[in-house]
Amino acid sequence: MIQKQSKSLITLNELSFSFRIARRYLFSKKSHNAINVISAISASGIAIGTMALIVVLSVFNGFENLISDMFSNFDPDLKITLVKGKTFQVDTEDFEQVRKLKSIAFFTEIVEENALLRFKDKQMPAKIKGVSPSFRQMSQIDQIIFDGKFELNDGAFERAVPGIGVASILGLGAHFIDPLYIYAPKRTSNINLIRPEKSFNQMATFVSGIFSVQQLQYDDQYVLVSINLARELFEYQNNTVSAIELKLNKNADSEIVKAEISKLIGNKYLIKNRYEQQESFFKIMKIEKWITFLILCFILLIASFNVIGSLSMLIIEKKQDIETLRSIGANNLTVRYIFLFEGWLIAIVGSLSGIILGSILCVAQEKIGFLKLGSGYVVDSYPVVTNVTDVLLVFITVLLMGFVAAWYPSRNLNRDF
């Protein structure tokens, strides 16, 4: 037992000794200036690669947050739909219990169907989204109104709020005096072959405002109307909905509330949070982010191979030192660790320098916005968000690459000398 402890202590001392020698080699002046230059180039290459990784990951995070904020103005915290089927009734005891949950701030009924729009001589298909009065509080629709105001019924006329893409295609504007006609096929009657126009329900509305989410799937397809108009147009009963959208209280955890609602209404309903409502979009963004990360890692790996040349030349220069260390009792493993630590120190210096430079660039971009996107974009400059987890991931990745680069020349040390 005593022998094992002694052996372990010696090993720790050897590691400490190897590290001190490696640190001295890193910062001391070499007899051949080329070694200093190559070491500096190695550290600089790693620093530039690390900086590029930090900046690129931060830009991807910035775009993800930007788009998430855009969706949050239109998407609810939780959305309930059927797993199979299109519509369901909300006048049930289960949904009454959902309404009474303390964690739910607003409970909005939704009827959504496809229809045909006509304004003067222009036509186009669109998605009609009928919403109950609480939709205004549930979403942040007032923040994304491009023209006019959000109003679905003024007491005398039914109003509509189309997306900016729909308005552009049809030539609509807020408060135009010409009505916007909405057509939907009748669900409860047969097609009239003699007079086909009688096979459609028709509703006339007037545009009160135009919204802009800056996302084509909404701006180019959706028209918001009152839920009463939608139910009449699509021939649904008063308590029939195609979805329920929920806004949670500030301190509510969406996953906890989601599990609670699932227990109340059963597994025939699908409950989605904000991420799941746009799951395919965010998955694509994450795939793009990590593919870019892997490409930059490959470039960084090539840059880190300069460490091999730097260590190889250092081993040749320190041949006499190696013989001296062996003569005073240092074993081959101790000598090998000296140059392994040397390579690691080069990688650490490079990675820390790159992290600092990348963080400074990201903070400057966030505060000043010196890298511009140009006109016609949602924001003027590239958005950046630096995450601590990304920084740690980059640091660990660079250390692994530095180990791989330093391991090869240190492994062959005993064979060369």
Write a concise keyword list for the protein shown above.
single chain; 417 residues; alpha+beta; 2 domains; six-stranded mixed barrel; two-stranded antiparallel sheet; 13 strands; 53% helix; elongated; disordered N terminus
Notes on the structure:
With 417 residues, this protein is of the alpha+beta class. It has 2 domains: 2-70 and 282-416, no CATH class; 76-277, no CATH class. The chain has helices spanning 2-27, 33-72, 93-99, 135-138, 164-170, 216-219, 227-234, 254-265, 274-277, 279-304, 306-317, 319-327, 332-367, 388-411, 413-416; strands at residues 78-82, 88-89, 104-119, 122-131, 145-148, 159-162, 180-185, 200-207, 209-211, 222-226, 240-241, 243-248, 269-273. The strands form 3 sheets. The chain has a 6-stranded mixed beta barrel. The chain has a two-stranded antiparallel sheet with strand order 2-11. Strands 5-9 form a two-stranded antiparallel ribbon. Helix 11 (306-317) crosses helix 14. The radius of gyration is 33 Å and the shape is elongated.
